[in-house]
Amino acid sequence: FPSHDIAGKCPDFIRLAEDIIYRDLDSRVQDTSQQLTTVAGTETVALDPNFMNMIALSIDGTSPRWTIDFRARDQYKQEARGAYTGYPRIYTVIANTLYLYPIPDQVYTLNAVWESRTPSLSTTTTTNAILTQFPMVYLAASMVQAALYIRDNNMAETWQAAYEKAVEGVNVNAWASGANMQVKSDVSLTGYTR
Fold it and tell me: I want to staple 113 with a disulfide (CB 3.0 to 4.6 A). Which of 56, 94, 96, 190 is the partner?
């Protein structure tokens, strides 16, 4: 690269690269599990600020395991009508808030598996799981940003191709699938109280 103030821009290149990486990457290292607790009579549960996408959601301590099914926001709004309470059967996510319906009738512990935004690199956070396991993804994405900054289109194209190849290699091996996120329309509210 030319000598003009490129070093001072490196943190910006990395930060811009991270936004693209988190959008494109689908890797197990981004997955986390957490127990969430409902509040009786409350439809919502706050999610972690780094939450990106729910993979699986179930109620802890049930046998067989009670899985809560995902609904797209519009479908959730159509099905979640009235103040019915009971075991949550469906959920959606709006912003960083989990919505459950029927509204929990008591305190439930939920087992959540979700895709998390990996902590961004900084002067205090000098590594993360993506950088450790997939350094080429970080390097190529950052180099694309640097090449765009100095307006070197050929270099940007070269690094973009390298980035896409690195991401594809990671995503091909990703185990997460949307199989648990089937859209269903057979919700019956028989037995739930209002």
Answer: 56
Rounded Cα distance, 143 and 160, in Å: 8
Chain centroid offset of residue 171 CA: 14
Residue 170 token pair:
């990671």
Q: What is the DSSP code string of the chain?
A: --SSS-GGGHHHHHHHHHHHHHHH---GGGEEEEEEE--TT--EEE--TTEEEEEEEEETT-SS-EEPEE--HHHHHHH--S--EES--EEEEETTEEEEESEESS--EEEEEEEEPPPPP-SS----HHHHH-HHHHHHHHHHHHHHHTT-HHHHHHHHHHHHHHHHHHHHT----STT---------TT-B-
pTM of the model: 0.69
